[in-house]
Amino acid sequence: MAVEQRLPTESGEDRLIARYFAPLARHPGAFGLSDDAAILTPPEGHDVVLKADAIIGGVHFFPDDPAHAIGRKALRVNLSDLAAKGADPAGFLMSLALPEGVTDEWLDGFARGLEADVEHYRCPLMGGDTDRTPGPTMVAIAAFGLLPRGKMVRRTGAQPGDAILVTGTIGDATLGLRLRHDPGAANRWHLGDAFRDHLLRRYLLPSPRSAVAPAMRTHAAAAMDVSDGLVGDLAKLSQASLLSADIELARVPLSEAARRALAAEPALLDEMLTGGDDYEILCAMPPDHVTAFRSAAGALGVAVTEIGRFAGGEGTRFIDEDGKEKTFARASYSHF
Amino acid sequence: MAVEQRLPTESGEDRLIARYFAPLARHPGAFGLSDDAAILTPPEGHDVVLKADAIIGGVHFFPDDPAHAIGRKALRVNLSDLAAKGADPAGFLMSLALPEGVTDEWLDGFARGLEADVEHYRCPLMGGDTDRTPGPTMVAIAAFGLLPRGKMVRRTGAQPGDAILVTGTIGDATLGLRLRHDPGAANRWHLGDAFRDHLLRRYLLPSPRSAVAPAMRTHAAAAMDVSDGLVGDLAKLSQASLLSADIELARVPLSEAARRALAAEPALLDEMLTGGDDYEILCAMPPDHVTAFRSAAGALGVAVTEIGRFAGGEGTRFIDEDGKEKTFARASYSHF
Question: Residue B251 domain-assigned?
Fold first, then answer.
């Protein structure tokens, strides 16, 4: 029984924090991680948006993923939610559980990867804790965003006639995961190195759409990020507003790499639309906002595609080019 | 490799959240856990205080601890920090990792225990996630407190001449842990059932001093909670203010149960002062505030004891009744 076994070192955890994590605490309210808690002071008239999501080795990432990607992935899955809600990143807390045998090299890579994202997303580490675990590495992040009061983009709020939009491309990460399990698929799908690497990267490290958060709160009626598969997440978004959704399958945006894989193995489509890990934004928008939103997002390098419309009634329909409805064996991923 | 294995159920996690955790989301900004993020709107002129700490089965609690205690312990260790900083509880996020084989009965107990604390501490669940893990149960909580702007009680800020105070009693939890590992000690320590159970309870479930948070921000110059042992935590508090501390060993408050154990086995004193899990508040206070603070805390049922004074210089000294300094082999607990 390892419960509360006492170790001889006084300040090992303190040293680890000072060496690897204090440099990430670039917020005056984090006090360089030297206090027991941090302070966030929202600008007047602003709300704090709160989100927590954890990733676990062997469940959400591969134990042999590069260390620099693991902390970033944990942060980015949370930033993806904040972006969909229209919130600008403000900071995060992290509880890190590390197995025996973690090396300084691994910790250094982990911290440096995270540091790059702290910088890029302007999202400083505000605090947290580090523990030994007899289990796999677990990175539990709670992220905080800011937005003007009452402006959070909810799941509810879509209206009949609203356009259904999605950022980026769908299905890449699922194909990247397939390639991790089955590297030979790259040849069967005629991918070449560049396309293969694109899909692998999309699984390894999401690209949260933080840049478009301000445009989201200006234009979107309802939104969520696509993390559990487009089909299932669209069903959730539709149900939240008590609407039905009609999607034109041919308009669902796919990367060149995904198109090539799909051409080689058409049955992949199901997996691409239900597999998850996309971390794109799915939203409802009044049609007269679409051009302005597309333009604002485009200026930030984020592609936006209109894939369908909300209507009265219920249910989500994916319609192919022959006008036939496509059905799915399961809508999305669940742990339970 | 279990990474992202797809399961046939669409909404198992959603059902689990709706059944066990939505009833804990008693905050309008939590939206009944039906959205992807929550909103916290601090009252004007207030700061948000942020804290994250996780507990892991086999490390911070025993896998056979009653389910109702585990979520509460995870919440309470965070509330203890907020209380020491002078912040009133406002809400929390929870990332819960569950091993295979967790039963509905366990989940029900876990959620009901947590619900009692949500009620007692007025600290609603704001969001989070639930995952399967191949490792032990892990409960990662990020807790949020509120206080008037600039009023957080820092680790720094003590002055020479400030009184050193501690709430409650010290060493109980460490003895409770000893009793878990070595139940026969109860007889050797001549405890009887009531004293034994007192010590076991103090280890199983901390009692964060949330009630005195307002008095802390009114009266304390510097503070932290005692979670890693009085000796080590006092050293941290002293170092933060660049001061020395003199403690009269005889004044360190002990419970009746702890006194009895100590009488039977005097060598326990080291463990009681360095063992941790006390979750009491240690603070520095100008002497002219002590009476008012003691009175305010007493009215809330929280005992406060003055155990020593800060002075210039450095180092912490524990002085026994013969005027001799007691030394310790190690100051506190560390995972690394």
Answer: yes
How far apart are alpha carbons A207 and B269 in whole angstroms? 54
Q: Which of B102, B80, B84 is nearest to B13 (CA)?
A: B102
Task: List chain A residues with CB under 8 Å of B276.
Answer: 4
Q: Tally Cβ neighbours within 10 Å of residue A304.
A: 23
Contact B151, B45 (CB under 8 A): no
Where among A124, A148, A172 does a domain terminate?
Answer: A148
Sequence-ordered alpha helix ranges (H) in chain A = 12-16, 67-84, 104-120, 172-181, 185-188, 192-204, 213-219, 230-240, 256-264, 268-274, 290-299
Question: Same domain for A233 and A258?
Answer: yes
Radius of gyration for chain A, computed over Cα atoms and rounded to the nearest angstrom:
21
pLDDT in tens, A217-249: 999 999 999 999 999 999 999 999 999 999 999
Please give the tally of structural domains in chain B: 2
Q: Across the interface, do A8 and B97 touch by the CB < 8 Å criterion?
A: no
Average pLDDT by stretches of 10, chain B with 336 residues = 36 84 96 96 97 97 96 98 98 97 95 98 97 96 98 98 98 98 97 98 98 98 97 96 97 98 97 96 98 98 98 96 89 57
- Closest chain B residue to A135, measured at CA: B135
A117 neighbors A183 (Cβ within 8 angstroms): no
For chain B, strand residue ranges (E) read 38-40, 46-56, 88-99, 125-133, 138-148, 163-167, 222-226, 244-248, 280-285, 304-311, 315-319, 325-326
Instruction: Say yes or no: B181 and B282 in one domain.
Output: yes
Instruction: Transcribe A253-309 into DSSP letters.
Output: ---HHHHHHHHH-TTHHHHHHHS----EEEEEE-GGGHHHHHHHHHHTT--EEEEEE
* ipTM for this prediction: 0.94
- In A, minimum Cα distance to B157 occurs at A35
Neighbours of B102 (CB within 10 A): 16
